[in-house]
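Agenda item 2: 2-acetamido-2-deoxy-beta-D-glucopyranose complex prediction
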Amino acid sequence: MPALIEFPSCLLLALSFFFFLLNAFIVTTAAEIFTVGDENGWTMQVNYGAWTDKHNFTVGDILEFKYTRTEHNVYEVTKEVYQSCNASSGGVLAKYQTGNDQIELKEAKKHWFICEIDGHCLGGMRLAVDVAERQPTAAGTGSSGGGAGEPVPVSGGGGGNSGDSSCGWSNRSYAFGRCCSLFVYLVLVSACIWK
Ligand SMILES: *[C@@H]1O[C@H](CO)[C@@H](O)[C@H](O)[C@H]1NC(C)=O
Ligand SMILES: *[C@@H]1O[C@H](CO)[C@@H](O)[C@H](O)[C@H]1NC(C)=O
Ligand SMILES: *[C@@H]1O[C@H](CO)[C@@H](O)[C@H](O)[C@H]1NC(C)=O
Ligand SMILES: [Cu+2]
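Presented output:
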């Protein structure tokens, strides 16, 4: 009886499918890449306060600073330095100067960034982002979102990243990257059901 032999593997398949669904839901709310200043990039004459107000930042998101390497830089600083625009007596937490810096927001707290070139910070090149804890959402894991704030693993492991480009989708969101495997599972499961 082939059906008896096939049944457990079908069950296994269905189970892993559900795992993938769950995974996809969590991943939908996972890491986003924000290009600071959008098409303007990191430069003078941009209102970064207005830019920040348009977005919500959560742990795991990435800030991408794009600028001319010889003209600007990015320092992560303390609140004091952000306010004074004077980094000469400390308060610098990290320095970036590649012209295309991708900075992961790793902690749920306020982060402050300035351009440290003379006059640029006072001229508007400063950014304050309030980073929120990542909350479980639609997946139903924990749900109800009480007061707690347990961090949720952002991705199901290293495998997620390599899968990103396999679908030909841009790297906007990990969720799209998973579409291939999800699709394969769907096909396999329906094949099992229709047998
Ligand atoms: C940011 O979060 C607030 C409150 O949760 C929500 O009302 C708003 O629509 C969100 N904005 C974006 C751009 O997601
Ligand atoms: C920056 O701070 C240093 C040390 O506190 C001080 O000597 C310097 O005058 C300040 N620079 C400006 C432009 O205020
Ligand atoms: C996607 O990733 C590639 C290489 O990793 C990069 O060149 C490209 O700019 C990224 N696209 C977006 C929309 O971030
Ligand atoms: Cu600058």
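Discussion summary: The domain at 33-132 is CATH 2.60.40.420 (Immunoglobulin-like).
Owner for follow-up: CH.
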